[in-house]
Design brief:
By secondary structure, this protein is of the alpha/beta class. The strands form 2 sheets. It has a 9-stranded mixed β-sheet with strand order 1-2-3-7-8-9-10-11-12. A 3-stranded antiparallel β-sheet has the order 4-6-5, with no helix packed on it. Helix 3 runs parallel beside helix 4. 36% of the residues are buried. The chain starts with 7 loop residues before the first helix and ends with a strand. GO terms for molecular function: hydrolase activity. It comes from Marinomonas polaris DSM 16579.
Length: 268
């Protein structure tokens, strides 16, 4: 039997690569306040916008698309749902039946997840690893405020805080930025854990002030408004945009389907 002898220096390099972290501490993208962005989750992604970052679907976006966007100087945030089961996703079979709750209102093929479940968390870890393998700069985990609704489970606000902090810690451990999505009541408590916030209709629902802690911490708030009046009435849109600029938010007026049928930006 032949025994292969490695030089000690080579052995040290191999051991170092096995046990050292993939990323240095604090080594991930941090978007600035008033960052420009485009959000498209449906249809063929329009790559032509002159913005700082794109927010696109993790599963539906190819590595080639992500690389093209990055080659043009853009950062890429990858979307997935962290709080709901979607029956069309390729990893849908990985969820246990006991972890599937009630159907989401308006979304018949989605069900709430038990965010306390270790199996649910394992699926999310694999999704984070997928984001790394595809080269995403960050992630947008959706439906992370389910404690506020009737999910079919009995978890509370503290369970949501624990789950959201779990997602943030796991993202950062992989060198990924992470955004807090639609969780206004916990935004202040979580602003130190997340790198930016994404909110929908915060002007329509008078929730924008809930995210002021992000701006104070030098972290952007990316907001999307869907009211048709902002499309049809320039005066109404300008009034809303004036408020957005005063708050230093990055606000877009988009179709609720997020399919790039139109796009209006409050930023210059």
């Amino acid at each position: 039997m032949r025994v292969l002898l490695f030089p000690f220096s080579m052995l040290c390099v191999l051991l170092s690569s096995l046990f050292s972290p993939l990323y240095a501490a604090d080594d991930w993208y941090r978007p600035p306040v008033s960052v420009t962005w485009q959000w498209q989750l449906d249809g063929v992604v329009n790559e032509g916008y002159d913005v700082d970052l794109y927010d696109i679907d993790l599963f539906d976006s190819s590595v080639e698309l992500i690389q093209r966007l990055q080659a043009s100087g853009k950062k890429v945030i990858c979307y997935f749902s962290a709080g709901s089961y979607e029956d069309w996703r390729p990893d849908a079979v990985d969820f246990a039946a006991k972890d599937l709750g009630k159907t989401l209102s308006g979304w018949d093929n989605e069900r709430w997840l038990d965010i306390r479940s270790s199996q649910v968390r394992d699926v999310m870890i694999r999704r984070l690893d997928l984001a790394v393998s595809k080269g995403c700069d960050g992630i947008e985990p959706d439906n992370v405020d389910s404690y506020r609704t009737n999910t079919g489970f009995s978890f509370r606000a503290n369970d949501q805080l624990d789950y959201n902090r779990f997602l943030a810690a796991q993202a950062h451990a992989r060198g990924l930025a992470i955004g807090l999505k639609n969780d206004p009541d916990q935004a202040r408590a979580l602003s130190s854990d997340f790198d930016f916030a994404i909110t929908e209709q915060c002007f329509e629902f008078s929730e924008c002030r809930s995210y002021s802690s992000f701006i104070k911490a030098g972290k952007p708030v990316l907001n999307a408004e869907y009211r048709r009046i902002y499309v049809d009435d320039e005066a109404q849109r300008n009034a809303m945009c004036k408020q957005s600029l005063a708050l230093e938010f990055s606000t877009l007026v988009l179709p609720v389907t997020l399919d790039d049928k139109f796009r209006l930006s409050c930023l210059p």
